[in-house]
Amino acid sequence: MEKPLSFIAVPVLAISASSLLSCTLKEEKRPMNILYIMSDDHSYQTISAYNDQLIKTPNIDRIAQEGARFTNSFVANSISGPSRACMLTGKHSHANGFTDNSSTFDGSQQTYPKLLQKAGYETAIIGKWHLTSAPTGFDYSEILVGQGDYYNAPFIKNGERIKSEGYVTDVITDKAIDWMENKRDKDKPFCLLLHHKAPHRTWMPDLQDLELFSDREFKLPDNFYDTYEGRQAAAEQEMSIIKDMDLVYDLKLADKENEIHSGALEQAGRNMYNLMTPEQRVAWDKHYDRVIADFKEANLSGKSLAEWKYRQYMRDYLRVIHSVDRNIGRVLQYLENAGLLENTMIVYTSDQGFYMGEHGWFDKRFMYEESFRTPLLIRLPGGKKGDIEQMVQNIDYGPTILDLAGVPVPSDMHGVSFLPLLRGEKVDNWRTALYYHFYEYPAEHAVKRHYGIRTERYKLIHFYNDIDSWELFDLQNDPSEMHNIYGQPGTEQLVAELKEKLVGLQKLYGDFNAMKYNN
Ligand SMILES: [Ca+2]
């Protein structure tokens, strides 16, 4: 096929690209580019479009202001690799095979980037991948090794290992902008998956942000000192700020005197410090040496130690978010300067939610709201501006993106396209219940295996494996999920209805293995 002389000439591009996508020439429609930005462990509590009490994120908020804010957006399995596999395949974990982070993604299976590629899109993944096997379905890939590092992280570029220098959120952003500007085939529409490592544990800030929030105090969540009555799995977890957050690994107290000892993760914490260059360490030490000295001086214990840890966690996490937001600003500015803003759908999301001290926790995993929910902001040119309240799930992302590209959604995908919602159309018969299944146990943080159903008002969860514990919450009267009303007189009919709906979803999605645990 002869190449068009110029990709800037709109009619030429329209003919070239629409023939790729089998659109009729009459429509003269340029296919929409897709920029899918996903952070790792970014809580909706720390995006000011959702909650402006903790931090201001003006750049991320811009996506919401010029587009749609989903207020009921959820994941299917609240942990990194499994969540990513759900997004790529549009299927729940049991069907895509990546049930926990010890899995290896079967890259030969159907994914939405592969289908886009087939339809003529240029596809790329830049940043965190975390699916063990090499990416498939991408014309270009530049991914972090495993979880990745915050400083000077190695990458794998189209299969070849390379070094990088600097702070990971900046580096990933630079690579993404460079790909959009210089590396892609500009005759084709693109789909770029820009996946940040930040703000994943251990929340190492950029050097330029180290002094931010240093004087900020944070109000403890009301249930910070949760005692987990009536919730056995919650009582037995190991993701508590008080008990499990590590002083050296998580809170960066790798002291030169080697006096602070924190257990199994201490050495990993000291190793992360050693990944920085001598110049980076000088800037780092300027901040943390003082924090370490103050910590030793204060000699804390009990509640004052717990609250110190919480405060330090919040300060570092928010510093990391500040850098994410600044870099989203750089990307939006690039799109604007390059004239791409009006022909690109921009998605901002996270691979799940995260606890900012609610129930006394950090991390994710549970089907409780803070980790089950995830931020989702989408700017679709010509699309809806404002809130979308319907319940959507990350298995819907693939179908939605395919729908936007005019590619038929395969019938074996579990998710459904929410493009009509994004276009502001009236949609009847939207789903009224979501299914969830978490598998990673026994494992770090000791969150039991569980599955469940959430309707607009209620949530029914079954913890199984080495436990058999049901929980029922009335989200309207108990949004913090502190009171398990399962088994209480008067809930019998409600439980029966929810169990019937749960079985209906298990059948719909084919999670027959889970059904064995229902009774
Ligand atoms: Ca994650």
From TrEMBL:
Pfam families per record: Phosphodiest, SGSH_C
Keywords assigned by UniProt, alphabetized: Hydrolase
Keyword set includes GTP-binding: no
Gene Ontology MF annotations: hydrolase activity
Family from the record: Belongs to the sulfatase family.
Residue stretches making up the N-sulphoglucosamine sulphohydrolase C-terminal domain: 357-506
Organism (species): Coprobacter secundus subsp. similis
Protein name as it appears in the record: Sulfatase
InterPro entries (alphabetical): Alkaline_phosphatase_core_sf (IPR017850), Phosphodiest/P_Trfase (IPR002591), SGSH_C (IPR032506), Sulfatase_CS (IPR024607)
CDD domains: G6S_like
